């Protein structure tokens, strides 16, 4: 977590860039288009600086964020968000606490993902919903990013990426049903024509998900 503590204060700066705004917009479009839960208690697992925690609150959820980085949590709390420090493998919540668990770009940085998914299942109410979003290294975008990480320290140096099929298997292995996946961002980060990229994302998010840079999986607790 030392790396994330070090970058926490400037982490949100990227979202103010042209590329950052585009990525944030299209990833949120995908995540919230997959969600069927419209209200209730939500957990933003791996909340970081609170980007999705804030969006869930805007949408009317009673939301709490959890992260392992105190530096990230300090920034999230400065936005007026309710957040706690904790380990995703041992969630500090009772059984059946949440209607929704959302986790975006956390699974790349954890060990024992099966244990984390089992914990998600435990804290969800029956019929509750999970959406997990991660980066997919089978994409042009991350071929460039991972090459860069060999020479410059970035988060990608410490990450493990997942394919849509691997994410689906994680959920099914813990008992989730109605599992589905999708993906967006099909061009590398230096692609200048973001209008074209957005049209491709909205058209190909299901049938071409295996090539997308960002993939998400959704499931329901039995």
Give a verbal description of the structure.
The structure is a single chain. This protein is α/β, with parallel strands linked by helices. It has a single domain, classed as Vaccinia Virus protein VP39 (Rossmann fold), CATH 3.40.50.150. It has eight helices and seven strands. Strands 3-2-1-4-5-7-6 form a seven-stranded mixed beta sheet, with helices on both faces. The radius of gyration is 16 Å and the shape is globular.
Summary?
The protein has 222 residues and is of the alpha/beta class. Helix content is 37%, strand content 22%. The protein has one domain: Vaccinia Virus protein VP39 (Rossmann fold, 3-Layer(aba) Sandwich), CATH 3.40.50.
CATH fold-level topology: Rossmann fold
Gross morphology: globular
**Number of β-strand runs:** 7
The SSE string, one letter per element, is HHEHEHEEHEHHEHE
Low-confidence segments: none
What CATH architecture would you give?
Answer: 3-Layer(aba) Sandwich
Work out the helicity level.
Answer: 25-40%
Sheet with most strands: 7 strands, mixed
Throw out a few tags for this protein.
222 residues, Rossmann fold, seven-stranded mixed β-sheet, 8 helices
Tell me the layout of helices and strands:
Layout (H helix, E strand, L loop, with lengths): L1 H6 L10 H17 L6 E5 L5 H8 L3 E6 L2 H9 L4 E3 L12 E7 L8 H11 E12 L4 H10 L14 H10 L3 E8 L9 H11 L9 E7 L2
Parallel strand pairs: 1-2, 1-4, 2-3, 4-5
Antiparallel strand pairs: 5-7, 6-7
């Amino acid at each position: 977590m030392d790396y994330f503590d070090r970058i926490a204060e400037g982490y949100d700066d990227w979202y103010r860039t042209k590329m950052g705004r585009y990525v944030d917009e299209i990833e949120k479009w995908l995540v919230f288009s997959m969600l069927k839960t419209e209200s209730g208690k939500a957990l933003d697992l791996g909340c970081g600086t609170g980007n999705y925690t804030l969006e869930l609150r805007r949408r009317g959820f009673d939301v709490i964020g959890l992260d392992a980085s105190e530096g990230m949590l300090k920034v999230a709390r400065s936005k007026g968000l309710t957040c706690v420090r904790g380990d995703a493998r041992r969630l500090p919540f009772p059984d059946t606490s949440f209607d929704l668990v959302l986790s975006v770009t956390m699974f790349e940085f954890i060990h024992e993902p099966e244990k984390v998914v089992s914990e998600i299942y435990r804290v969800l109410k029956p019929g509750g919903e999970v959406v997990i979003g991660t980066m997919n290294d089978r994409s042009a975008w991350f071929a460039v990013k991972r090459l860069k990480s060999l020479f410059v320290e970035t988060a990608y140096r410490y990450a493990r990426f997942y394919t849509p099929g691997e994410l689906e298997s994680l959920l099914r292995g813990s008992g989730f049903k109605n599992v589905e996946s999708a993906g967006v961002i099909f061009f590398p980060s230096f692609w200048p024509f973001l209008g074209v990229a957005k049209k491709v994302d909205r058209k190909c998010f299901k049938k071409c998900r295996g090539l997308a840079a960002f993939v998400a999986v959704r499931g329901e607790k039995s």
